[in-house]
Design a protein that fits this description.
CATH class of the domain at 16-134: Mainly Alpha
Number of strands: 2
CATH superfamily of the domain at 16-134: Tetratricopeptide repeat domain
CATH architecture of the domain at 16-134: Alpha Horseshoe
Largest sheet: 2 strands, antiparallel
Oligomer: single chain
Radius of gyration: 22 Å
Order of helices and strands: HHHHHHHEE
Length: about 170
């Protein structure tokens, strides 16, 4: 082999967005939430369609207990990934922590439409209903239509069916 024949292997360069995300995740893992917020924001500025940036920003904001801002970030992520149950669930949790219970209930219902067996969404929605903080959904037996009586929360005493969280029928229906 001659001296002039060298094989050069070039590693593909990461995009600036991916580099910003990597730095943001590192900051988040170190607990440097201010830096994580800044770096996730940088990633979003570089690519406004970067759902990972919005999701990470939501996590960082939630860890700072900035639940309204976390909900905004998770909401953007959910807009970019409307059929992803986890994105919608994160949004619902942030809405709930921000005290926006009706919005959270609506979002939990969206999660359950996408993934009916999503247990965390089922439980969270059930807790909202039982706490009496939402009026747009209720617990009802799907077979006989009865409502649960405390402490009976799982199965209907009339027919034995499991209770489901259902949207409240509007007066117009």
């Amino acid at each position: 082999m001659s001296d002039s024949a060298h094989t050069v292997i070039m590693e593909p360069r990461e995009s600036p967005t991916k580099l910003a995300l990597r730095a943001a995740i590192s900051s988040l893992n170190r607990g440097d939430l201010d830096d994580a917020v800044a770096r996730f924001s940088d990633a979003i500025a570089l690519d406004p369609q970067c759902h990972e940036g919005y999701s990470g920003l939501g996590v960082a904001r939630a860890r700072r207990r900035e639940y309204d801002l976390a909900a905004d970030a998770f909401g953007e992520c959910a807009k970019l990934r409307p059929s992803d149950p986890q994105s919608r669930y994160n949004y619902a949790v942030a809405l709930q922590r921000a005290g926006r219970y009706e919005d959270a209930a609506a979002e939990y219902l969206r999660v359950l439409r996408l993934q009916p067996e999503h247990l965390p969404a089922q439980r969270a929605l059930r807790r909202l209903v039982l706490a009496g903080v939402v009026s747009t959904v209720e617990l009802r037996c799907p077979r006989c239509g009865s409502r649960p009586e405390l402490p009976q929360l799982i199965t209907c005493r009339h027919c034995g069916a499991g209770f489901q969280v259902l949207p409240v029928a509007s007066a117009e229906e």
